[in-house]
Amino acid sequence: MKEIVETHLPKLMALLEPYLDGPGTWLVGDKMTIADFYLGGVYTNYMNSASLGYCAEDWANTKKSYPKFCAYGEKYAAEVAKHLANRPAVPL
To answer: Are 69 and 57 in contact (CB under 8 A)?
Structure first.
């Protein structure tokens, strides 16, 4: 997991940055696509998960490094709030 956070995630964030500025838009337009569900899942399941049992500190530090992605993740979480509130808790 450390390799993902320290090596792969920065590369992904560098590619995503240009697409995360549009207010009210998703990655590929004005409607959510599978790309949004995947990346939103990264945010809700790892970067912002209270049940994360490993590398939690690494993910918390990563959130500080990518505020645009966190804003996007919060927008995604708001959009799927009903699902997030009703899904079973599973330790990751």
So the answer is: no
Q: Say if residues 29 and 44 touch (Cβ distance below 8 Å).
A: no
- Eight-class DSSP state of 87: S
Opening angle at CA 21, ends 57 and 41, nearest 5: 45
Strand, coil or helix: 20: coil
Phi/psi of residue 35, nearest 5 degrees = -60, -40
pLDDT tens per residue across span 20-44: 876 567 888 889 999 999 999 988 8
Per-residue tokens: 72: 């996007």
Angle, CA of 90, 5 and 84, to the nearest 5°? 30
Dump pLDDT digits (tens) for 57-82.
777 788 888 888 899 999 999 999 99
Q: How far apart are CA 81 and CA 27, in angstroms?
A: 19
